[in-house]
Recover the amino acids of this structure.
């Protein structure tokens, strides 16, 4: 506690004493930036002096960790104000001017921009505006022009609204390569009075939950199932080239949805039948054309057995019940209580 307060008050030498923003108008410009720097200093302190913070494994910062701001941001909307509010007009100044901006900058640094780019832009702001009177726009613009990253969406959602982050996995469709065209393709051909002979050789996909799916083909490679593909490979590739091809056995179309208002990078951990995992981060621009849901197609040699969105809880997602596929069973408090007294 005392160490935290000392770090915080020393930080005020820089914000607002040197970078002289107007605390009466924009409380977050010194308290938020200072709380953010306090978080970084505390975490570095914890890494440097693990004995001092034991038994904790990381410094127990009061503010800054994404998970810490979830109760505030998921709270009653009628009691929330945007960060961009005069400090005298907000309901709870602590989370509004300290915790939320500190968390927003922490997420921007760790998850959106990366430390190197963020730190360069943040230092440029401090250098450019020392002994001057910056307004919020000066901060937002410097962070953007020093990094060359369009952050309008980030400032808008985190600083000008009371939206929250909620991203989930909504649906997973499984597809397999098929020797014969599926229903959709047959309808396409009928409508145009075409037969397979009229078309160039094609490789067909059918959904696992459709009548066209032949369970015998599950787990087989596409060239084992599709003669067209086999012939194409024989005609166009050398034996050495064919030997190098890693054919996927499984195809998936995954729908992710975004009930929350704030766009975020889509961080996904895929787990396969052999226990291996793959982490893919899709940039926040993935939401640019559709703010409600996006689909990704992936192929793999192993069967996909699990999907988790934001597995390390780095985006302040307020509802994690929709973050997993297959859906994790949600036990009620009563069930948990029953298990506890039964000693299960
Ligand atoms: Zn302060």
């Amino acid at each position: 506690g005392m160490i935290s307060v000392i770090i915080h008050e020393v930080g005020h030498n820089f914000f607002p004493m040197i970078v002289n923003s107007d605390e009466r108008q924009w409380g977050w410009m010194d308290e938020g930036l200072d709380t953010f720097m306090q978080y970084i200093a505390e975490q570095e302190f914890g890494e440097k002096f693990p004995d001092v913070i034991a038994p904790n494994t990381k410094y127990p910062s009061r503010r800054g960790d994404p998970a810490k701001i979830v109760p505030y941001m998921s709270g009653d909307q009628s009691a929330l104000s945007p960060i961009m509010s005069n400090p005298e007009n907000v309901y709870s100044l602590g989370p509004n001017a300290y915790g939320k901006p500190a968390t927003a900058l922490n997420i921007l640094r760790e998850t959106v921009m990366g430390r190197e780019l963020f730190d360069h832009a943040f230092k440029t702001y401090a250098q450019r505006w020392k002994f001057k009177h910056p307004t919020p726009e000066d901060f937002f613009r410097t962070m953007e022009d020093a990094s060359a990253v369009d952050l309008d969406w980030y400032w808008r959602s985190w600083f000008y609204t009371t939206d929250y982050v909620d991203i989930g996995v909504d649906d997973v469709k499984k597809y397999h390569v098929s020797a014969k065209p599926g229903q959709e393709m047959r309808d396409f051909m009928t409508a145009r009075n075409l037969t397979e002979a009229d078309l160039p050789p094609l490789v067909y996909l059918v959904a696992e939950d459709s009548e066209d799916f032949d369970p015998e083909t599950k787990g087989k490679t596409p060239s084992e199932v599709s003669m067209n593909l086999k012939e194409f490979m024989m005609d166009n590739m050398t034996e050495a080239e064919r030997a190098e091809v890693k054919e996927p056995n499984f195809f998936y179309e995954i729908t992710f949805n975004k009930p929350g208002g704030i766009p975020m990078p889509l961080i996904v951990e895929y787990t396969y039948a052999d226990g291996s995992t793959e982490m893919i981060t899709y940039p926040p621009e993935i939401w640019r054309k559709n703010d409600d849901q996006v689909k990704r197609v992936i192929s793999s040699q192993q069967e996909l057995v699990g999907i988790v969105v934001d597995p390390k809880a780095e985006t302040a997602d307020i509802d994690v019940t929709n973050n997993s596929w297959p859906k994790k069973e949600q036990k009620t408090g009563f069930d948990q209580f029953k298990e506890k007294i039964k000693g299960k």
About this structure: The first strand starts at residue 168 and ends at 178. The radius of gyration is 26 Å. The mean pLDDT is 94. Residues 8, 12, 31, 34 surround zinc ion (CB under 6 Å).
